Each structure stands twice: as structure tokens, then as C-alpha cells.
Amino acid sequence: RVATRRYTIDQVFSFARKTNMHVQVEDVSAVEKRIKVEVPWEKVRERLDVAYKQLGRDVHLRGFRKGKVPRSVLERMFGPKVDGEVTRDLVRESFVHAMKEHDLDAIAEPVVEEADIRRGEPFRCSARVEVRPPVLVKTFEGLVLERHEHPVREEEVDAALERKRLDSTEFVAILDRDHTASADVIEISMQGRVGRHKVDRPEMMIDLSRWDLSPLPGLVQALTGLPLGSKDHLLELRLPADAEQKELAGKTARLSISILAARKKVVPALDDDFAKDTGEADNLQELRDKMRVRLAEMAHKHALKEVREAARKELVKNNPVELSPSLVERGIDSQAER
């Protein structure tokens, strides 16, 4: 086994200074560079000597005492391995130095084209590396942008107040009724199967007034009218063939239902008392005025956001940027992972 080392940036620059490393950077394209590095043979030989000395201390070979294996034997048995390790170290150190010295913002690992140790010759290596594309905004004056202000309509204020009123809904427990028809919301436990899918929901809230929010088509209707004390009630539902969840379409649900609790919705009236309870106003008209101002501020922020987005699109269109293939691949991979 040949030991490999990790080097700090300072050690790499020290190595570069001591070796008189020669670095050349060529433009392949706006987003790709070719780096060529040359290291004198004397410095490469020193690295090989260090590697073989370390190997000689660690290796165990039959017929030789530890640390006494001749260099010629080590070269014959481990030459390619040592050359490969030293080559990788030289490549790594050389390219770290080259990218730092020439201020290259690499976005992918270098693709090595050439890197060989040849006895008596300078070590030469070259690699292509993708870099972050330069973004130079040259054309930005004279952009035609429109800002669409959206005046607040009274019906929008009405809708906002209604949402606020519904957010203040209280759910009062029902104790003296005998069936779910008197309830707006029930808490159930549900076990069973839908087709081949197992269902195990120990606690689940069901809004009986919102058939469109039913977790399964027809479940809300089937639960309406059940006795509040129902326990392990067996329920069978045939799901429609056009169900939104395609994997459940046309399947049969066989479920065991227990009703754990039932509640009635108590929605406050939209009046001065409600306005006071919000802590935002002393009467309904004051709350209404504040809601109108708030909606106007939101509309203004939305209009500015639209202008910024339009400006961004125009800038990108008027100032094309060449993209690195690696950035495109990363974008594709990110979408695939999501």
C-alpha cells in the first residue's frame, strides 16, 4: 500500500515555489480553460525518492527485514503504483496552484488529458476545466418595462374580512347529540385497505361540511349520520373510475371506522365586537379601512415584483451568457431529484 498525503493551500504554494512550476492557461471557450503544467525532473525525482523511502519503511516482503528492501526491488514490484500516486499528487497540487494563481472559478473537477512520469524528463500534465461563466451586463439602458398597479376593490376587502372571520372559528365539543348530522367536524380512527394499499390512521380530522376535502371520494357522505359512539364500524366504498388519485381509481375501500370526538363550528359574526376581539381595531369600519390599506400594500409589492421579474428577463435576453455544461447537468439532476 502506498501512502497518500493531503496538502494545505499553503503547502501547495510552497511546493510550487520550490519546484519552479511553469503554468500555462489557454482559453478553450468562455466557460472552459485548458491548464498546462510543467515540473522539472529534479523535483519529480525528489518526490519519488520520498515515496519509495516511505514505502520501504512500511512494506513487508518475505526474505527482507522491515525497512531493508532494496529500492530496485520496490521499483520492480510497486513502480506503477508509486508512479500513479505521485502523479495524482502532482496533478492535484499543480491544478490547485494554477487555478488560484490565475483566479479561475472552477465549477467541476478537471478532466485530465495528459499526466505521465517519464524518467529524466519534466513532468507535464494538462487538463480541461469548466469555469463559472462571466456575466457582463452591457445592454441595460432603454428597457421598456410596465408596472401594473392593481387598485383594491371592495369585494376583495369583503373576501379578506371573511377569511379573517373564518380563521377565528371555534370548535366546540358536542356531548349531547347522538349522531354526526349535528356535527361539523369529527375526529376518527381509520384502519383497513384501499385496493392493495394499507390504511392505518389512528387520529384523523374530517370536515363534514367540505365534501371537496374528503380524503377518499364518498367518505364524508358515508360518515354523515353515523352514531357519535360508533366503534369499529365497517365501511365499504367503491371509488369512482375517474378519481383524481389514479392509483386508487376504481378500487374498493374496506375500512373500520371509530368516531373519537365531534365538534360544532362556531363562527363569530362580522361586527364591531369581532373587530375588537382581533385587537386591531375598535369597530368594524376601522378594521375594514386597515384591511384595505394592507391589501393596497400587498398589491404594490406584487406590482414591483412583476417589474423586477420583467427587468430580469429583459436583461437575460439582451445579455446572453454562455452556460457551462456542468451547470446545465446539475440543473437537470436537481429537477430529477425533486
Structure notes:
The protein has helices spanning 9-19, 41-58, 71-101, 154-167, 219-223, 272-278, 284-318, 325-337, and strands spanning 22-29, 32-39, 111-116, 123-130, 170-173, 185-194, 197-207, 233-238, 252-266. It is α+β, with helices and mostly antiparallel strands. Strands 5, 6, 7, 8 and 9 form a 5-stranded antiparallel sheet that branches.
Question: Main traits of this protein?
Answer:
4-stranded antiparallel sheet, 338 residues, 9 strands, alpha+beta, 40% helix, 8 helices
Query: Are there runs of 5+ residues with pLDDT below 50, and where?
Result: 1-16
Structural class: alpha+beta
Helix and strand element order: HEEHHEEHEEEHEEHHH
Helix content: 25-40%
DSSP summary, beta strand count: 9
Shape: elongated
- Tell me about the largest β-sheet: 5 strands, antiparallel
> What's the Cα radius of gyration?
37 Å
Q: What kind of assembly state do the chains in view correspond to?
A: single chain
Average of per-residue pLDDT values: 85
Instruction: Count the DSSP helices.
Output: 8
Distance between the ends: 41 Å
Strand proportion, as a percent range, falls in 15-25%
